[in-house]
Design a protein that fits this description.
Layout lengths: L8 H11 L1 E4 L2 E5 L15 E2 H13 L3 H14 L19 E5 L6 E5 L11 H18 L2 H5 L1 H15 L29 H17 L4 H24 L1 E3 H8 L23 H6 L5 E8 L2 E7 H9 L5 H13 L1 H4 L8 E2 L4 H8 L20 H10 L3 H14 L9 E2 L5 E2 L8 H15 L21
Antiparallel strand pairs: 1-2, 3-4, 4-5, 6-7, 7-8, 8-9, 10-11
Helix pairs in contact: 1-17, 2-4, 2-17, 3-4, 4-7, 6-7, 7-8, 7-11, 11-12, 11-15, 15-16, 15-17, 16-17
The protein binds alpha-D-glucopyranose.
Length: about 475
């Protein structure tokens, strides 16, 4: 990188963000995932839907709404809308993980990857959820209702809602997904009902409800959403919640209970509580567990799902404060030298072999397995602002600010305390740059929190099983 002595970190971040923009037919449509000339690009030269979110929010705040408009328009065109010919094709409603501008001859085409080219063939289920969340942010920032209410956007929303709310082999309100269906796009034991997807699902449903045109079809979808939201929120607040009181309950659970009104509904065996948690759970604080299924609870702490839960008011006020209390009490484990760990703790040994399939990228305290991801900083700042804990957000920012520009904006950091730049980390990672900028912009202008946050829901149909 050519160092420009007088450039501030903010100016540098803005310059790099500008440089990351992808153009299609002379129009800005997205940003590359990373612009690291020292590493093989693989698919980092593509625009990932999830990676574009912080960049898009920065653009919206800065009034550069055209790139977000173009992105939404092009991605709506990429969404799968035709019945698939064979089972290797994406289902209707799916949004791609990423897209790329190809230039065969004089033409320019957009090529989408629905996971059909991705490493491990992972399905990008979070893409369509993030897409809805971004559409709402765009609508709020521009006050342009027309785009969201146009026929093809209403159709796109309906396709996504159909795939999410349609029939499933399930009797829980959570969304059942395969492993690697979100930011953690490698095997990490996230199949089933991972928190990241559930939090995004909740927020996306609330965003969709705001934007649906209330005609006959729209009303039917709104009813379905309200029904689902009511039980989803109940399920997550109740069954996923972990704090010392709940841990004590699980510790003394009776198992093999049969019948409708049993306490231990999912037959969680007390023996499955990991030893680390009995010491790690603070007296004050709590969090939503990583996953829950029959006979199985993933007790790991996942940052994205917990922070999005706060931002979207999926958790109660008290739970939201408790999550931030936990982050504060376990600062040296979760933040330490770089905000913030994607999950805690890392898995190792036989567990790592079985769960990751011996993935050398996800060794303990690296990458998705306990690595630290600066992109999560904006979600941390947003969650802290929502709960009036700017002190924590500022502490995290101060740590990040010291290192990010100096280290050339890495994708992730390794080590228990996040001191090392990730072993295979890209540099000049766009969402690291945008995530930091967004955190800074949110801090300076708290009213922009509105673009992504939600007040407590009053519309959904309350569920008390
Ligand atoms: C990695 C991350 C994924 C991200 C992609 C591009 O695969 O796990 O979440 O979208 O890189 O940055």
């Amino acid at each position: 990188m050519i160092a420009i002595a007088s450039e501030t970190i903010e100016q540098q971040a803005n310059r790099l963000l500008e440089k990351s923009i992808i153009y299609y037919q002379q129009k800005p449509v997205g940003t590359v995932a990373a612009a690291d000339s020292e590493r093989e690009a693989l698919n980092y030269d593509q625009c990932f839907i999830r990676d574009f979110i912080p960049a898009a929010l920065v653009f919206l705040i800065q009034g550069k709404t055209d790139i977000v408009y173009n992105f939404l328009l092009e991605t709506v065109g990429l969404q799968k809308k035709k019945r698939r010919v064979d089972c290797y094709e994406p289902p209707i409603g799916l949004m791609p993980a990423s897209f790329k501008v190809e230039s065969p001859g004089n033409e320019q085409d957009l090529h989408a990857d629905f996971g059909d080219k991705a490493i491990g063939r992972v399905t990008p289920i979070d893409s369509c959820l993030w897409w809805i969340i971004l559409l709402r942010a765009y609508t709020k920032a521009t006050e342009d209702l027309e785009l969201a209410q146009s026929d093809n956007f209403q159709e796109a929303l309906a396709f996504i809602l159909e795939i999410c709310l349609g029939p499933q082999f399930e009797m829980t309100p959570t969304l059942l997904v395969p492993d690697g269906a979100c930011m953690v796009d490698r095997p990490m034991g996230l199949s089933g009902h991972p928190l990241e997807i559930q939090s995004l699902f909740y927020v996306a449903l609330r965003a969709a409800r705001e934007m649906l045109v209330r005609n006959t079809e729209g009303e039917i979808l709104v009813d379905k959403i309200n029904n689902r939201l009511g039980s989803l929120v109940y399920h997550l607040r109740d069954y996923y919640w972990l704090d010392l009181t709940k841990l004590n309950q699980i510790h003394r659970y009776q198992s093999e209970q049969f019948g409708e009104s049993v306490v231990n509904k999912f037959n969680i065996y007390p023996e499955s509580i990991p030893y680390w948690l009995t010491e790690w759970m603070p007296d004050q604080g709590g969090y939503l567990a990583g996953n829950l299924g029959p006979g199985k609870m993933d007790f790991r702490f996942f940052s994205l799902g917990n922070l999005v839960a706060i931002i979207g008011s999926l958790t109660t006020e008290e739970q939201s404060s408790d999550i931030l209390n936990l982050i504060e009490h376990r600062w040296s484990d979760l933040v330490s030298q770089m905000p913030i760990k994607l999950c805690y703790p890392a898995i190792s040994g036989l567990e790592w072999r079985i769960i990751t399939g011996c993935d050398p990228k996800n060794t303990p305290w690296s990458y998705h397995n306990g690595g630290s991801w600066p992109v999560l900083l904006w979600m941390m700042m947003a969650a802290c602002q929502k709960m009036g804990r700017e002190d924590l957000g500022d502490r995290a920012m101060a740590i990040a600010e010291l290192r990010l520009a100096q280290d050339d904006w890495p994708e992730y950091y390794d080590g228990k305390n996040g001191r090392l730049i990730g072993k295979s980390s890209r540099k000049f990672q766009t969402w690291t740059i945008a995530g930091w900028l967004l955190a800074k912009l949110l801090r300076e202008n708290p009213r922009y929190l509105d673009l992504v946050s939600f007040a407590a829901d009053t519309e959904a149909i309350a569920c008390t099983i």
